[in-house]
Protein: Gluconolactonase
Amino acid sequence: MTTTPTTLQAEPWTSLPSQYRNPSTSSEHSQNQKRGKPLDSFLEGPIYVADLALLFVTDIPYGRIFSIDSHGTWSLVIQYDGEPNGLVWNHITRKILIADFKQGIMELDPITKEITVLVSRYHGERFKGPNDLIICSDGSVFFTDQGMTGLQDPTGRVFKLYPEGRLELIVGNGPSPNGLVLTRDESALFVAMTRDNAIWYVPFMKDGSVQRIGRFSSYYGIGGPDGMAMDSEGNVFVAHSTLGVVFVHRSNGELFLKIRSPVGVSTTNLTWGGEDLKVLYIVESESGTVLRVDWHCSGWLVKERSIEGTAA
Structure:
């Protein structure tokens, strides 16, 4: 028996201040990915760094990374020649990793503001265009190489970057691979395949190889699933890029809740923050707004597992 999911509305928390908005069609992101649509910003990649009590977000078209404090005050951390999309906090190096569409996988020291490129090629060829990334408890990183792939060109990739620098291809036939989330025991990976309008489930064998990839969930609409998150109960949160909805699934795939945006339909990414990680922050990209939802349990972050040794 199918049940109708409950609907919950997120609350606007803070928006990009006017002094940081720059409406223009001249950015490469506007020309190449938005068909020349003027963009004063396009926010993505939120992460909460508890050590600094700051939320970080990217602004893709203008190569910017911002921090936001608990009062909703914005600060420009860095602006550089790139298109930063996904972020993740490396709990081992204490630095921010960036999936940059233009530059590759980068590393940012949030204190010194030093930024470096970690890897930009695979077998000598440049990446198509990295989109998002997630870190494992041992410091290994999974990232998506989306580029401009889609159903017409299902060659998007998912890589695993090991701490010593070795790069391994995990998936090579993805129609626009985007957001990522790991199961709590790190035995499987969920990948948002945006142009397939679906979440793929990628299970790992004991030796780390992949077998029998399947679809965890399917959606509808012009865009598709983008960023993802997981809570401590194993529920999977999926932000849809053109419906203004975050779909919340149980670990078996059952949809039981929809979180709606009150300010726009471009809900692209989300992360956990606040006290005990019980606040879900959601980015509505085109309006430059960060939404929030108070959740009943803590969110799941790899740092929590690696430091506290929590079992899945």
Observations:
- The longest helix spans residues 302-308.
